[in-house]
Specification:
The chain has two helices and 14 strands. It is mainly beta. It has a domain of 155 residues: Sortase, Chain: A, CATH 2.40.260. An eight-stranded mixed β-barrel has the order 3-4-5-6-11-14-10-9. The chain has a two-stranded antiparallel sheet with strand order 1-2. A two-stranded antiparallel ribbon has the order 7-8.
């Protein structure tokens, strides 16, 4: 709030007019003379104006510092501290078929042109993907379908910085719905409202049909920066 000029008006009593006394006889007339005005002290002037109000010091709100370095590790822990995911993290782009395919044995953060500035912890959505299995063996996101709201996703950087996110949603999503920006699900993943720092984790949904070398569904985790 910006301080304004303080204007205080005090009551002011003007001096009374001389009064005429009663007349007991024709030989004596009594009158009350007007008293000599007394200068009013500065503390009791009729109007007091604070000419130079003290303005409160405005303290700017600092923007949160962005993590330095490159994303290097992703950890997902349950509310009781059990680690469901703990793996290294590398930049990943789409292949010739426009699929985001991270390497086996590591998770990949989406670092393609236009998204390379959306590292985890930066304003806007960031996307991390990992395989659920490889050659019938568990891979880095094998336990991602066990993630529930309230769990914590932590991203560690090469600089030692760390950013954390609280899971708000986790569910199976058909792959076509996860990429169709005309629908609410895809909008919530790729184009959420506002400029809040959020993260989305992707893997395959093992409960769906396996066709060729892919499951038909995804398991998606939504989380907001803490």
């Amino acid at each position: 709030m910006i301080a304004g000029v303080l204007l205080v008006i005090f009551g002011y009593q003007p001096q009374r007019e001389p009064s005429v006394g009663w007349i007991p006889s024709q030989t004596a007339v009594f009158t009350r003379t007007e008293p000599t005005p007394v200068p009013t002290s500065a503390a009791h002037r009729a109007v007091k104006v604070l000419q130079h109000p003290t303005r409160p010091k405005v303290i700017p709100i600092a923007s949160p510092a962005l993590p330095k370095g490159e994303p290097a590790q992703v950890v997902v822990a349950t509310t009781d501290g059990k680690r469901l995911v703990d793996t290294s993290l590398v930049p990943t782009v789409r292949n010739a078929e426009e699929e985001l395919v991270p390497p086996f044995g590591k998770a990949g953060w989406y670092a393609e042109a236009g998204w390379s500035k959306r590292k985890p912890g930066f304003p806007g959505p960031s996307v991390v993907a990992g395989h659920i299995s490889h050659r019938s063996q568990p891979d880095v996101f094998y336990n991602l379908p066990r993630v529930r709201p309230g769990d914590v996703v932590s991203i560690k950087y090469t600089s030692g910085d760390k950013v954390s996110f609280r899971v708000t949603r986790a569910e199976a999503v058909r792959k076509d719905l996860a990429t169709d920006l005309s629908g609410d699900v895809a909008q919530s993943i790729w184009q959420p409202s506002g400029n809040q720092s959020v993260i989305r984790l992707f893997t395959c949904d093992p409960e769906t049909t396996f066709v060729g070398s892919h499951y038909l569904g995804n398991w998606v985790v939504w989380a907001n920066k803490i």
